[in-house]
């Protein structure tokens, strides 16, 4: 079973606890002439649309900002956010499943979204997921769930 990736959706309470343990800060986003702070751990995924980025949040809401996905990637926690495809960045806290196929690897998120993993990024993506899961196991053994 070595190297097997097991995905199990995390509860909202577990996500919040892990966000504290991982010291995930708020993300300040430009929004209609002002700035708005958004908790980073509530972002399920980011989708690039040209010079804009569409945020998909855990509560189902969405927000579009006038920053590129590349710019947003540099502001996110690399421990939790990975870029499986040039158009998407996903939050591993919301990973529901990994679906290997003969042609294409894809992942599903707890909000029902299904994202393709580019062939060039597939092996790195799998390594990132395995590393993240190992980190989660370490964090879970350090602090019991309340």
UniProtKB/TrEMBL annotation:
SMART domains: LytTR. PROSITE patterns: HTH_LYTTR. It comes from the Bacteria. Residues 37-131 form the HTH LytTR-type domain. One of its GO terms (molecular function) is phosphorelay response regulator activity. Gene3D superfamilies: LytTr DNA-binding domain. InterPro entries: LytR-like, LytTR_DNA-bd_dom. This is LytTR family transcriptional regulator. It comes from Spirosoma pollinicola.
């Amino acid at each position: 079973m070595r190297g097997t990736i097991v995905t199990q959706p995390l509860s909202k309470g577990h996500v919040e606890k892990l966000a504290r343990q991982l010291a995930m800060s708020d993300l300040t986003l430009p929004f209609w002439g002002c700035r708005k702070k958004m908790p980073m751990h509530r972002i399920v995924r980011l989708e690039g649309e040209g010079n804009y980025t569409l945020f998909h949040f855990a509560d189902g809401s969405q927000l579009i900002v006038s920053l590129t996905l590349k710019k947003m990637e540099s502001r996110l926690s690399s421990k939790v956010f990975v870029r499986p495809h040039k158009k998407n960045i996903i939050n591993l806290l919301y990973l529901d499943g990994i679906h290997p196929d003969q042609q294409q690897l894809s992942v599903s998120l707890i909000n029902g979204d299904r994202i393709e993993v580019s062939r060039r990024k597939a092996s790195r993506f799998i390594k990132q997921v395995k590393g993240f899961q190992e980190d989660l196991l370490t964090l879970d053994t350090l602090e019991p769930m309340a």
